[in-house]
Write a structure and sequence with these properties.
Blueprint: E1 7-10, H1 12-18, H2 26-38, E2 43-48, H3 61-67, E3 75-79, H4 83-92, E4 96-102, H5 105-112, H6 116-132, E5 137-142, E6 146-147, E7 151-152, H7 155-168, E8 172-177, H8 184-194, E9 203-207, H9 214-223, E10 228-231, H10 251-261, H11 269-283, H12 290-295
Parallel strand pairs: 1-2, 1-10, 2-3, 3-4, 4-5, 5-8, 8-9, 9-10
Antiparallel strand pairs: 6-7
Helix pairs in contact: 2-3, 2-11, 3-4, 6-7, 7-8, 8-9
The structure holds 3-hydroxy-3-methylglutaryl-coenzyme A (HMG) and magnesium ion.
Length: about 300
C-alpha cells in the first residue's frame, strides 16, 4: 500500500558539497546542478546562503545560481538561516528556500548559533517575506533520531518543532536524520508522533547513511505513507556541525529501490550515475552509491 509516486529532493549540490574542505570550482557545481536537472530531478538544492565564514564551501552560491541553465518545471532551492540569507537567495533567483531548525538544543547552538526558540523567531520574518513574494518555504528539523552532542532525541521533540514550523507556514517538513543513527523502529515512532501534527503528505525524510540504515528507514517511511525523500547524488554529504556524519542516502540507491517497487519517480538512473561519476572525479572521491558502483563498468 505504498504511495503511487515519489518526490525526490536532490540535495547533492548543497548538503553533498557543503562539507568538502577542498575548493570546488563554480563551473563544477554548475555542471552538477545541470546534470541533475537533465536527469529528471525536479527539486534541486543548489546552494546555501549561510554565513560564508561558517561554511566557506557555500560562499559561491550566488555564482552557482547565476551560472545554471534553468530548466522549466525544476525548482532550484537554497538554505536560508536568516533574513540576510533570504535576501541573498531571492537576489540570486532561488525558486524556493529552506529554513532549518533542530530537535536538539545543543545542535541548534552549534549549527546556527542560537536556541531552538530563537531560531523560530529568526525564521518568522523569512516566512512573512516569502509569503509576500510567493516563495515556498521548506522546513528542516535536524537530529530527529540522534544528536552528535546530546545523544538520543525524544520523538515528541521532533513532533513539537515540526508542528511549529508547519504552523508557521512551511509547505513541507523534512525530517533530518543528521547523523544517520535512526533505525526503522525509531524512525517509525518519529513519523507516527509527527503525523499527529503534520499530514503525512507534508512530511519528507532526509536520511544520512552513516550507519547504513538509510534505505531501510526510507522503506519504512514509504510503507507508512511518506512520499518525499531527500537524497544526494553519489551519497555525498555531511554537516560541518555534526562530526562523523557521512553522506546522505545516495540518489542512485533510492531510485533503484523505487524501480524495484515499480514506483514512478521520473528520474533517469543512468544519467544520475553519470552526474555522480563526474562530480566524484572532480572531488577525487569514490562514489558512496552501491548502485552506481555496481552499474559502473570499470
Ligand atoms: P552568526 O555569526 O551568529 O550571525 O551566525 P550574526 O547574525 O551574528 O552575523 C555575524 C556576521 O555574519 C555578520 O557580518 C553578518 O552580516 C554575517 P559582520 O557584521 O560580522 O561582517 N551574516 C551573513 N552573511 C551572509 N549570509 C548570511 C549571513 N548571516 C549573517 N546568511 C548563522 C548565525 C545562522 C548565520 C550562522 O550560524 C550560519 O551561517 N550557520 C549555518 C550553518 C550551516 O550552514 N550548517 C549546515 C546546513 S544545516 C544541515 O546540513 C542539516 C540539514 O542537511 C538537515 C539534516 O541533515 O539534519 C539541513
Ligand atoms: Mg543533511
Amino acid at each position: 500500500n505504498f504511495p503511487s509516486s515519489v518526490k525526490i529532493v536532490e540535495v547533492g549540490p548543497r548538503d553533498g558539497l557543503q562539507n568538502e574542505k577542498q575548493p570546488i570550482a563554480v563551473a563544477d557545481k554548475v555542471a552538477l546542478v545541470n546534470a541533475l536537472s537533465n536527469a529528471g530531478l525536479k527539486f534541486i538544492e543548489a546552494g546555501s546562503f549561510v554565513n560564508p565564514k561558517w561554511v566557506p564551501q557555500m560562499a559561491g552560491s550566488e555564482e552557482v545560481f547565476a551560472g545554471i541553465a534553468r530548466k522549466a518545471g525544476v525548482s532550484y532551492a537554497a538554505l536560508t538561516p536568516n533574513m540576510v540569507g533570504f535576501e541573498r537567495a531571492i537576489a540570486a533567483g532561488a525558486d524556493e528556500v529552506a529554513i532549518f531548525a533542530a530537535a536538539s538544543e545543543a545542535f541548534s547552538q552549534k549549527n546556527i548559533n542560537c536556541s531552538i526558540e530563537e531560531s523560530i523567531e529568526r525564521f518568522a520574518p523569512i516566512l512573512t517575506a516569502a509569503r509576500a513574494q510567493n516563495i515556498p518555504v521548506r522546513g528542516y528539523v535536524s537530529c530527529i533520531a540522534g544528536c552528535p552532542y546530546e545523544g538520543d532525541i525524544a520523538p515528541s521533540k521532533v513532533a513539537e518543532v515540526s508542528d511549529i514550523l508547519f504552523q508557521a507556514g512551511c509547505y513541507e517538513i523534512s525530517l533530518g536524520d543528521t547523523i544517520g543513527t535512526g533505525t526503522p523502529a525509531n524512525i517509525e515512532r518519529v513519523i507516527e508522533l509527527t503525523n499527529k501534527k503534520v499530514p503525512l503528505e507534508k512530511l519528507a525524510l532526509h536520511a544520512h547513511d552513516t550507519y547504513g540504515q538509510a534505505i531501510a528507514n526510507i522503506y519504512r517511511a514509504f510503507q507508512m505513507g511518506v512520499s518525499v525523500f531527500d537524497s544526494s547524488v553519489a551519497g555525498l554529504g555531511g554537516c560541518p556541525y555534526a562530526k562523523g556524519a557521512s553522506g546522505n542516502v545516495a540518489t542512485e540507491d533510492v531510485i533503484y529501490l523505487l524501480n524495484g517497487l515499480g514506483i514512478a519517480h521520473g528520474v533517469d538512473l543512468q544519467a544520475v550515475i553519470t552526474a555522480g561519476k563526474n562530480i566524484c572525479a572532480s572531488l577525487g572521491r569514490v562514489s558512496q552509491s552501491k548502485v552506481a558502483r555496481a552499474l559502473s563498468s570499470e
